[in-house]
Amino acid sequence: MLTRIRIRRNCVPVSIALAALIASLEARSQQPNASRHPVAIVVPQGSGGTVTAVDANGASRSLSPASTEPVDVQFSAGRASLAVTYTSGLTLTTAVRSYEDRLVLPELVMCRLNTRDSYGLGIPGARVVLRGGGGRFAWSSEAITDINGSADIVRPTTASGTAVVVVQADGFGTRRDEVNVSSPELTISMEATGTIRGALTDSTKTNPIATLRLWKLTTSRERVLQQSVRRDFILRDIAPGEYLLEFVASGVGAKTIGPVRLDAANYVDLGSVDLTPTASVSGEVRTSAGALLSNVRIRLLNPTRPEMVAEARTDSAGRYMFRRIIPGEYRAELFMGGEGWQTFPEEPLVIFGDERHEQSFEWASQRCSLDVEFVPEPSVKSASYSIALPVSDPPTTVTVDHVLTTRSFKSVPCEGVVFVRRTDGDAEQHVIRIEAGATRYAVRVSPPRLATEIQVSVGDRPLIGATLWLVSKDTSEMVNKARSTNVTDQAGSAIVPLPVDDEVTVYAQRGSTTAIIERTSFGGQSARKQLRLPDTVIRGKVVDQDGAAMKGVAFGGSIVPAASTSGEPQVPSSAVTVFKGTTAADGSFEVAGIAVGKWSLHFNAPASQLQFDTAFEIDRAPADKRIDVTMGRR
Asked: What integer is the mean pLDDT of 36-63?
């Protein structure tokens, strides 16, 4: 039986059908930290109808709006995942924490999405997917456009910021874009797609096969697709533009064709793509002293990235040979056991036709080396990382326990960067640039972060639509730090990965202003964390000497620390202590929740080479202070 639920559309009630609520629970009862208890799932008042849920035993349960009837939930590591699916095509996902006994679903609102071709006509039958977040819920909504090329998309009222829209239509391919979810009506324009076709040939094989990568040429190279192709191939629904086609035949090399121009509703016939390996490459590997080296691995790489297309080893006489190679351009990568890797970017291999190419290499010992130190905090029991060097080998896995761990690479390529990623945490990543000689880098290993709700208010008002960043022990730029981005909902709440027991800096961004709102240690993740900022605000406007509004003027403010009785400077807690931003189109600016105290404020307009400095004081809360600035005058 379908249940009717009322949804607001531009403040006008609209009805849709809610078929089922599917609770996907992490059943890990065998773990010692697993627990279970009932949680009431509540549809907002006035929605009408019932909600169907699946409890920890797999039994369906029906709940009335605002019901307190429990649903048994299985928790693991203090949380359980939940998915809510509506027949309108909307799916909500969230995490329920073990301290919660009630979950209120958000109200729903509908917006219209229009698809248009290059003539402004609607595109019927297009599949539209809209994905976004806001507050504690991530959401995804699907619909099919009608005969006019339009579709009604349902989203939760908690949605904020930008969302990703993906539109797929026959004859138009796939379009992916970012949109503002607060708009009641959205329009996506698409161009008719084209077709690329061709035929693989290889005189040494009756049925040649290769991996095809299609790259779109814009300001950079964007990979559109990757697939395996055999003999006659055809690529459909390709958007108009300029492309490179890259064919990689395992073990014998690669071939690149392009740039190729594809127009709307047209096709390109590449004809025969010959992958016959008619060339050969041979040579020797010596030390800088001239000694021949055996058992050195030589790889021929794709010329644009570290991808192996063929491999050989030196024999006892220090010589190697690739007997069958597709003519083209390659890079060389050498690996020697006990030493490491070396690359030769200044010596590309350009191989023609039936050429027998001779290329020798010199192994220069200790050109560049890398040491990565993993320094665990006392509370860390275990952690895992991957180290990706700028070579064709897969990333190296490193397991860290409670003691310092060092991973050393005696020889690494002297160009490029190394990526160190945490694989058991929340997307922590470190970028290491290799320098000549010895490079040493220390990774501070923190305890894993757990999802925790943080509620921020300015006075008695929730801070709505602010993006929160949490950075461990950081008070400046967020470089090589794990950023956890979350947007506060109507209650001022956001779910963030929070360190178990660590000092953090909390950044908040709303509009064009970023501010540090807290430097503190929250402790564990047992309940909601609350940050209450003073009910204070500064606002103003920046104009030039003629009174015209100045858009995009950078401004920054910092509190002047007051000295304590011990002489040490004191900075207020739970308040904005540093902020920066740019003025709006009308020259205005506004910052809320700043600390009581003395402040310095700096304005900078690089385009006109104008600067302005001022100072002000907030002596109480609540307070509303206005600062108007005329640039060019001090």
From this structure: 58
Q: Which CATH architecture has domain 109-189?
A: Sandwich (2.60)
For residue 443, give Cα distances in angstroms to 372, 376, 379, 420, 437: 7, 8, 16, 9, 20
Tell me, yes or no, if the two domains 449-533 and 536-630 fold the same way: yes
Give the Å distances, CA to CA, from 135 to 455, 467, 494, 499: 10, 10, 5, 20
- pLDDT for res 387: 95
Q: For residue 128, how many other CB atoms are within 10 A of its CB?
A: 25
Tokens 């507050």 -> residue: 135
Q: Give strand pairing partners of 433.
A: 417
- Kindly state which CATH superfamily the domain 194-274 is placed in: Immunoglobulins (2.60.40.10)
Q: What is the pTM of this model?
A: 0.57
In this structure, how many other beta carbons lie within 10 angstroms of the beta carbon of residue 421? Answer: 17
Give me the amino acid identity at 230: R
- Please list, in sequence order, all residues whose beta carbon lies within 8 angstroms of the beta carbon of residue 261, skipping any fewer than 6 positions away: 241, 242, 268
CATH of 368-445, one of 1.10.940.10, 2.60.40.2190, 3.90.700.10, 3.40.50.150: 2.60.40.2190
| Integer CA distances (angstroms), 74 to 31, 34, 110, 245, 314, in order | 11, 7, 33, 50, 58
- Per DSSP, the residues of 78-90 read TEEEEEEE-TTSE
Class of 536-630 per CATH?
A: mainly beta
| Element at 116 (helix H, strand E) | strand 108-116
Out of 95-99, 223-227, 293-297, 598-602, least confident range: 95-99
Tokens read off for 624: 């509303």
pLDDT band of residue 17 (cuts 50, 70, 90) is: very low
Beta strands in 303-346 (DSSP E): 308-313, 319-325, 328-336, 340-343
Distance CA 98, CA 495 (A): 14
- Give the start-to-end residue ranges of the domains of the chain: 3-105, 109-189, 194-274, 279-363, 368-445, 449-533, 536-630
**DSSP labels, 146-211:** -TTSEEEEEEETT--SEEEEEEEETTTEEEEEEEETT-SEEEEE----EEEEEEEE-TT-SS-EEE
Structure tokens at 1: 């039986």
